[in-house]
Specification:
- This protein is an all-beta fold.
- It contains no helices and seven strands.
- It has strands at residues 2-4, 10-12, 23-25, 29-30, 36-42, 52-55, 61-65.
- Strands 3, 4, 5, 6 and 7 form a five-stranded antiparallel sheet that branches.
Length: 78
């Protein structure tokens, strides 16, 4: 995930590596506070489901749903 400012400066906010943060992010949505929300197609090794995350403008990633937690009842797709 990256941001590009009005001067063309590129900043990497987060790189997904397929660990606890998941891997292969789907399209995201932006809220009024400039937080990004999205999901990943894969999760940590051993899980077939991805994660649901929040990424703030400073690059702080919060996993809202991780594989093995509530994923037996919900399948999320961005």
């Amino acid at each position: 995930m990256f941001k590009l400012d009005t001067k063309g400066v590129l900043t990497i906010l987060h790189a997904f590596h397929g660990g606890s943060d998941g891997g292969v992010p789907n399209p995201v949505i932006l809220d009024a506070a400039e937080n990004l929300y999205g999901s990943t197609q894969s999760g940590p090794s051993g899980y077939v489901c991805g994660t649901v995350f929040k990424l703030d403008a400073l690059g702080n990633l919060t996993n809202l749903i991780q594989p093995g937690v509530m994923m037996n009842t919900v399948f999320l797709r961005a």
